[in-house]
Amino acid sequence: MGTFEELMQLISDIPANYHEETFRMLYKYIPTLPEGEFLEFGTGLAKATCMIALCNPKLKITTFDTAIPYNYPDYNEQIKQTLEKHGITENVNHFIANSLEYETDLEFVGMNIDSGHSYELTLAELKRWMPKVKKGGIVFNDDYLDNRVKVKKELDEYLIEHESEWEVLNNGMCLVMQKV
Fold first, then answer.
1. pLDDT tens digits for 111-167?
2. Antiparallel, parallel or unpaired: β 36-41 and 166-171
3. From CA 115, how far away is CA 43, in angstroms rounded?
4. 59 CB-contact burial (10 Å; exposed 0-12 / middle 13-18 / buried 19+)
5. Where are the alpha helices (DSSP H) in the chain?
6. Average predicted confidence (pLDDT) for the chain
7. Exposed (0-12), middle (13-18) or buried (19+): which is 177, by Cβ within 10 Å?
8. Residues 59-114: tens digit of each pLDDT
9. What's this model's pTM, rounded to 2 decimal places?
């Protein structure tokens, strides 16, 4: 797998708005996940996707994004090329989709959430997707303490309502939760 610095160097060519702490949390917890399905929404240009796949090649990653603001004609092709360049196409499926409309019966060993950031959307995503996480599964929520977006309020509300189901592993810029 390599050190954190080595992995960050490998993916340094991919633009992203992620906080370094989020990448550090992915690096710390992704290798602890068992083989299984992993869901990521808010793919962006796939930097976090690459980090996740490089940290744990046993994961089968489904990642999707609405493609906004990346709604140019070759967005999907750019993601494919990024994944190919980093040698991780075998276990990653990328789609352009809305997180509230994407259908699957799968359960997940983990999720990485970095999507719309509005109160309504984030709360709807949490209610829809958190029940699909298996016991012991880990969920990463980027931008938790970022005042430019408003995800803290809805995450806090969700955790209060479901406190017996989740343990907070990291309460920083990336809120990391494990299903108990």
1. 998 877 677 788 888 889 999 999 999 999 888 887 777 778 888 888 899 999 999
2. unpaired
3. 8
4. buried
5. 4-10, 20-29, 47-55, 75-85, 119-129, 152-161
6. 89
7. buried
8. 999 998 887 776 667 888 888 999 999 999 889 998 888 888 888 999 999 999 88
9. 0.93
**Among all chains, which residue has been given the structure tokens 């004609």?**
73
Domain total in the chain:
1
> Rounded CA gap, 134 and 1, in Å?
25
How far is it, in rounded angstroms, from Cα 53 to Cα 47?
10
CATH number at residue 164: 3.40.50.150
3-state secondary structure of 80: helix
Look at residues 40, 94, 42 and name the one whose alpha carbon lies nearest to residue 66. Answer: 42
Residue 68: which domain range?
Answer: 4-179
Secondary structure element (H or E) that encloses residue 112, with its range: strand 108-113
Is 83 in contact with 92 (CB distance < 8 Å)? yes
